[in-house]
Amino acid sequence: MKHRKITTNQKGFTLIELLVVVIIIGLLASLVAPKFFGKLSQSRIKAAKAQIELLGAALDEFRLDNGRYPTTEEGLEALRKKPEGLENWAGPYLPKDIPKDPWGHDYVYKSPGEHGDYDLMSYGRDGEPGGEGEDADIVSWK
């Protein structure tokens, strides 16, 4: 009689091994995620500052051509469409539509401003004046 040798050479992971791996991945994610999202919020703040600078340059070009900044009523739209009564308007001063801030809100423009010839700002993530961190206002005069 021949004896067959039965081997149980099955390879795989036990439930405990899988749980250990999942826990390790969870711990790593909890360490990396806050740093990643912190960088994301800083990127949005930097993008808003850069957009405000670009809009400021377009506003300065408008002023050079027309002798004044757009009024609050004309708003930033005056950079794209000629307001009535301006003979020297040489726009559009922006190549594309007026951007929204990185959180999807409109920029707030006032002219004359309280801090200079004009005030241009983003209210941050919450879209409301004031706030801290990512909710803080990003302004043209600082």
Automatic annotation (TrEMBL):
Domain Type II secretion system protein GspG C-terminal: 36-141
Lineage: Bacteria, Pseudomonadati, Thermodesulfobacteriota, Dissulfuribacteria, Dissulfuribacterales
Superkingdom to which the source organism belongs: Bacteria
Region Disordered, annotated ranges: 119-142
Gene Ontology CC: plasma membrane; type II protein secretion system complex
Protein name per its UniProtKB record: Type II secretion system core protein G
Biological process according to GO: protein secretion by the type II secretion system
Membrane topology term: Single-pass membrane protein
Family per record: Belongs to the GSP G family.
Biased composition regions of type Acidic residues, renumbered to the chain: 129-142
Stretches that traverse the bilayer: 12-33
Family annotation (InterPro entries): Bac_GSPG_pilin (IPR000983), N_methyl_site (IPR012902), Pilin-like (IPR045584), T2SS_protein-GspG_C (IPR013545), Type2_sec_GspG (IPR010054)
Cell compartment(s), UniProt: Cell inner membrane
PROSITE patterns attached to this UniProt entry: PROKAR_NTER_METHYL (PS00409)
Record key words, sorted: Cell inner membrane, Cell membrane, Membrane, Methylation, Transmembrane, Transmembrane helix
Gene3D superfamilies for the chain: Glycoprotein, Type 4 Pilin
